[in-house]
Amino acid sequence: MRLLITGGAGFIGSNFIFHLRAVRPDWTLLCVDKLTYAGNLATLDSVRDDPHFRFFRADITDETAMRGIFETERPDAVVNFAAESHVDRSIEDPGIFLRTNVLGVQTLLDVCRSCGVSRFHQVSTDEVYGDLPLDRPDLRFTEESPLRPSSPYAASKAAADLLCGAYRRTYGLHVTLSRCSNNYGPFQFPEKLIPLMLANALADQPLPVYGTGENVRDWLYVDDHCAAIRLILEKGEAGAVYNIGGHGELSNLALVRRLLALVGKSESLITHVGDRKGHDLRYAIDPVLLEKTLGWRPAVSLDEGLAKTVAWYLEHRLWWETIRSGAYLSYYERMYGNRPAPDRHFDGGL
Ligand code: NAD
Ligand code: TYD
């Protein structure tokens, strides 16, 4: 298998690469990433000397660059993680979300078509379903729930989902989609709730909880998400949508309190700040299709996953402190900018 993975220098994409290195060591992994502010090449240090791994710095909206990579590397399948992924940024500046998350997917699908790559998996999100009320704990999103995205981010992901369905129907591509709940774990960019709160708590800085903090998210340990995507890639039915979630519902306030307890800091650090515009109240996933048809089960409980995650952030301070200081932004240029020719695995020429 020659698998092209986009967005592999980000949080879930990098964890997917590590997951495949462990369970599918014979696969060749072709990582394409633009290295936006959210991509950090240092995250991939542990695989850069692996002969079955190659990195290409490129933008998924750049059709010429994508075609060049597809024609030279001849992937068998594509898994698309590349996206602008932060809701708050989408509220500030929706345009880049539409360009990357919608037009980027259209570009990838078209290049797949013209290069004869028929297998495409789109990594989507439960946020396409909008939200659920707080007072109806019996309700969960199923694959049949209507698409009612609330934020520009969620709307861009929903548009991409519809595009994938259209390419399946019109051009017969073997497209699958997965819609996962909130992920957490190693290498998550410290603008997202869990790493941001951990970093602030460790620095004794205020923990900014939006609004009342009653909003509920359904948390899944990132490696369980990666295992689900691999299963779908290997056994998923063409055209199928799979919800992924681990029944890990928690209010933001309860989660922040647990993080504070895990790092031994005081709840007095919690600071309520103005609410996010259009803030979704509750997400909850029913992963029954994935469980019944592909036998997927989450392996990591919320208690275990949070403990592992806190331990990881404590042990890898340099990784997130470098991001918080902004120093990671020059990593690529420092490591690869002055080399006369692209090296064997990291192709900086694109
Ligand atoms: P992330 O922001 O950590 O990583 C995104 C990666 O994509 C970065 O490495 C970035 O450099 C790259 N990228 C952005 N624009 C690009 C472009 N135009 N061309 C090439 N690369 C580009 O995001 P994440 O949290 O790892 O999310 C990955 C995917 O999973 C996204 O599609 C997201 O919508 C989806 N998802 C995320 C979650 C979550 O909780 N984080 C949950 C469900 C689904
Ligand atoms: P986030 O990690 O941005 O994920 P998403 O918006 O995709 O669910 O936020 C998770 C929840 O935490 C969401 O309800 C917003 C809230 N939140 C805060 O209260 N404070 C923060 O500083 C951040 C980043 C998020």
Rg calc: 20 Å
Give the names of the bound compounds. Answer: nicotinamide-adenine-dinucleotide, thymidine-5'-diphosphate
Oligomer: single chain
Label the overall shape. globular
Major beta-sheet overview:
8 strands, parallel
The stretches of 5 or more residues where confidence is low (pLDDT under 50) are 340-350
Kindly estimate the percentage of residues that lie in beta strands according to DSSP: 15-25%
Under the CATH scheme, the architecture of the domain at 2-183 and 221-247 and 281-299 is 3-Layer(aba) Sandwich
Class by SSE composition: alpha/beta
Summary of the model, kept short:
The protein is of the alpha/beta class. It has helices at 11-23, 63-73, 87-92, 95-115, 152-171, 193-202, 222-235, 252-263, 288-294, 302-315, 317-325, 331-337, and strands at residues 2-6, 28-33, 53-57, 77-80, 119-125, 174-180, 182-184, 207-210, 216-221, 241-244, 249-251, 270-273, 346-347.
SSE topology sketch:
Blueprint: E1 2-6, H1 11-23, E2 28-33, E3 53-57, H2 63-73, E4 77-80, H3 87-92, H4 95-115, E5 119-125, H5 152-171, E6 174-180, E7 182-184, H6 193-202, E8 207-210, E9 216-221, H7 222-235, E10 241-244, E11 249-251, H8 252-263, E12 270-273, H9 288-294, H10 302-315, H11 317-325, H12 331-337, E13 346-347
Parallel strand pairs: 1-2, 1-4, 2-3, 3-13, 4-5, 5-6, 6-10, 7-9, 8-12
Antiparallel strand pairs: 9-11
Helix pairs in contact: 1-7, 2-4, 4-5, 6-8
The structure holds nicotinamide-adenine-dinucleotide and thymidine-5'-diphosphate.
The site of thymidine-5'-diphosphate has 12 residues, from helix 6 and strand 8.
